[in-house]
Amino acid sequence: MWQFYRRLQPFSVISFDLDDTLYNNKPIMTHAEQHIAEYIGQRVPAVSHMNAADWRQLREQVAGRNRELASDMTALREAAVIDGLRQFGTEPTQALVDDIMEEFLNVRNQVTIDEHVHQLLARLATQYALVAVSNGNADIQRIGLGQYFQAAWRPGQGLRGKPFTDMFAAVHDRFSLQRPSQILHIGDHPVSDVEGALGFGAQVVWYSPTDAAADTKQTTRLPTARIEDLQALADLLR
């Protein structure tokens, strides 16, 4: 099912959010966060009492102090690790932090992609330039989607995460587009995806499998269209 809020304009680039758009990220992160809490405890016994919920609470505190970190999940997790170790008397070396982050990334990139997603991306890649625009740290090569995308952006190296428009501007420049509306963004988050894309002037299809009335309360702006499943996107873009 899909619902249009405004007429879809011509576009040549489709940008996809990754987490919770092309796959269900929640069980992946639950497993990864439990694993990394145990791993940190093994590496640094002084924090072995901290579980996944404790680290999550610490990340929320760090994010509350820095809005830009809140939209850069990799930098946020690294900052929370450093903060947590310092709170319990350990001054972390960069080598230790890098090891912890690499362990986390190895586990969080263990993603299984449904076959219908592969089929959708394969078809769209023959018609449009596909790119990934994500605040998270999923790697399109590691998760098995690299063959469909021409480029991928995530926060870092001067680029802020959504809803800041930096990454959409990078897409615009990469393809030398004449208008921001030539980008069609697909994503699940009412603020980072919907408001972020619209703030740049791109079009956006909001992937929202839950109740639309409840979801629209989370954003002040309506998307170009809303879909409840990715099959609807396939139908919409035929």
Task: Kindly describe this structure.
It is a single chain. This protein is α/β, with parallel strands linked by helices. It folds into two domains: 2-23 and 113-236, HAD superfamily/HAD-like (Rossmann fold); 26-108, DNA polymerase, domain 1 (Orthogonal Bundle). It contains ten helices and seven strands. It has a seven-stranded mixed β-sheet, sandwiched between helices. Helix 8 (190-200) links the parallel strand 5 (183-187) and strand 6 (203-207). Helix 1 (26-43) runs antiparallel to helix 5 and helix 2 crosses helix 4. The longest helix is centred in the N-terminal third of the chain and has 18 residues, at 26-43. It starts with a strand and ends with a helix. One of its GO terms (biological process) is riboflavin biosynthetic process. This is Phosphoesterase. InterPro entries: HAD-like_hydrolase, HAD-like_sf, HAD-SF_hydro_IA, HAD_sf.
Task: Summarize it.
The protein is an alpha/beta fold and 238 residues long. It has 10 helices and 7 strands. A 7-stranded mixed beta sheet has the order 1-7-6-5-2-3-4, with helices on both faces.
Give the key terms.
single chain; 238 residues; alpha/beta; Rossmann fold; DNA polymerase, domain 1; 2 domains; seven-stranded mixed sheet; 7 strands; 12% strand
Topology:
Layout lengths: L1 E3 L8 E4 L9 H18 L8 H14 L1 H4 L2 H15 L6 H15 L6 H11 L3 E5 L17 E3 L12 H9 L8 E5 L2 H11 L2 E5 L4 H5 L8 E3 L2 H7 L2
Parallel strand pairs: 2-3, 2-5, 3-4, 5-6, 6-7
Antiparallel strand pairs: 1-7
Helix pairs in contact: 1-5, 2-4
